[in-house]
Amino acid sequence: GLTEFDGRRESWLRLVHPDDVSTTQARLQEAVEQKTSFSTEFRIVLPSGEIRWLTNFAYVECDRSGEAAAVVG
């Protein structure tokens, strides 16, 4: 559930509704590869089983060498 999120991509993706995981992960990967910002909508499943829609706005932060280092959103 939401209390299990620790900021890592794997933990975040576990919250995403199973039907939305592949699209959400593809948008994230595309942004990392292009080192750009992105937005996406997806459902999450709360510990109670309730489903909620979220809109995510994020950007890729690069390190000094220009490589993607983090996604902030």
Strand order of the largest sheet: 1-2-3
Helix content: 25-40%
Provide the residue-averaged pLDDT.
Answer: 83
Report the count of strand segments: 3
| Gross morphology | elongated
Q: Evaluate the radius of gyration.
A: 13 Å
Residue windows where pLDDT falls under 50 for at least 5 positions: 1-6
Query: Could you spell the SSE succession in H and E letters?
Result: HHEEE
Sheet with most strands: 3 strands, antiparallel
Instruction: Briefly note the structural class of the backbone.
Output: alpha+beta
- Beta-strand share of residues: 35-45%
**With helices defined by DSSP (H or I, 4 residues minimum), what is the helix count?**
2
Instruction: Indicate the multimeric state.
Output: single chain
Tags for this model:
alpha+beta, disordered N terminus, three-stranded antiparallel β-sheet, elongated, 73 residues
Please outline the helices and strands.
Blueprint: H1 9-15, H2 21-34, E1 37-45, E2 51-62, E3 68-72
Antiparallel strand pairs: 1-2, 2-3
